[in-house]
Amino acid sequence: MNFDFSETQLMIRETARKFAEEEIAPSASERDEKEEFPTEAVKKLGELGFMGMMVPEQYGGSSLDTVSYVLAIEEVSKVDASCGVIMSVNNSLVCFGLNQWGSEEQKQKYLAPLAVGKKLGAFALSEPEAGSDASNQRTRATRDGDYYVLNGTKNFITNGANADVVLVMATTDKSKGANGVSTFIVEKETPGFSVAKKEKKLGIRSSDTVSLAFQDCRVPVANRIGEEGFGFKFAMKTLDGGRIGIAAQASGIAKASLEASIRYAKQRKAFGKYIAEFQAIQFKLADMATNIDAARMLIFKAAALKDAGQPYALVAAMAKLYASKVAVGSALEAIQIHGGYGYIKDYSVERYLRDAKITEIYEGTSEVQRIVISRALLRD
Ligand code: CAA
Prior knowledge:
single chain; alpha+beta; Butyryl-Coa Dehydrogenase, subunit A, domain 1; Butyryl-CoA Dehydrogenase, subunit A, domain 2; Butyryl-CoA Dehydrogenase, subunit A, domain 3; 3 domains; four-stranded mixed beta sheet; binds acetoacetyl-coenzyme A
């Protein structure tokens, strides 16, 4: 067992760290406050090759491994978890899915611009009545010659307002349940497709989360990914990898919470001493660091399994379950260590808590991760 990162992985981490600290961090709190999408940062992340990290070079991607991807997401999320999720959705849900199951024509047309950040992607699975119960799709896709006609509503769609391309799950045969769902590539300009409500959120406020409406939206048959009925499995398999990205986002937030706490503990005095000299604070830091390292072990195990071509769904679910809990716990402890200053916006730790909470919800709630894990344990 080798715990060392390769030269390339370390170089990716350094590039991501430098970019995150110099170009994303300075405006992160202001964008959070104004709910402003980081257009410029996303463009530059594309230029750096961070929007299609695991896409083969032949489609414009960076041909990197999942471990490098985790390192980059962590660094970006450490300064701005909104940028982290924008990057994660484009990389793991959109580019990964297209690269694995898209046709050659779909890859040339859609994957190539998405991988270099010229276009942005979104993944539309959730609906008003299909959140955790994801196979309960109400959006319908009805075949009409060389087209499918989409009708329905998607909600809580990350990147939805800014996306040029959306992967939409819709029912093509209701009688088949989960096996009657298909996936379609829908372009922003397609008539009948519109962005509806923009959500006002607790955290990750500079990423956009919207509802999408489909009204007699005609999508060419050539834009269906895989066979008819493959859509739910496409979504589940794609989310298995997505969960590694969200776990890395959570670990980035947790690391930011720990680093902020160490900095503060070394500069804040109480009762004539730096608070870092009190065991009450030291033990909090020790617990945070231990939990973060344990979370990262799971995340890198999941990433390494994926890179080795081995089954990773179970460990990815464990990684997300644990890392998201550690992110929330670390952010809460960071606020406690900062005392009153942690509760106001002068320090970023209150943002870390608001951002951390969503990692226990999207790409499968913690309860859904427990379903995935326990089913794997109990399978014959
Ligand atoms: N890989 C391959 N196939 C899978 C699979 C996987 N990981 N998970 C399920 N399947 C297959 C099953 O084998 C089954 O196939 P057969 O019928 O051929 O046997 C079929 O899919 C149906 O599976 P289930 O019976 O297990 O389905 P279920 O209705 O019981 O649901 C669930 C299981 C795990 C709860 C699932 O619905 C789920 O993961 N829900 C959460 C959805 C989610 O994560 N949403 C995130 C939205 S995207 C997002 O959040 C992005 C963002 O904003 C950042």
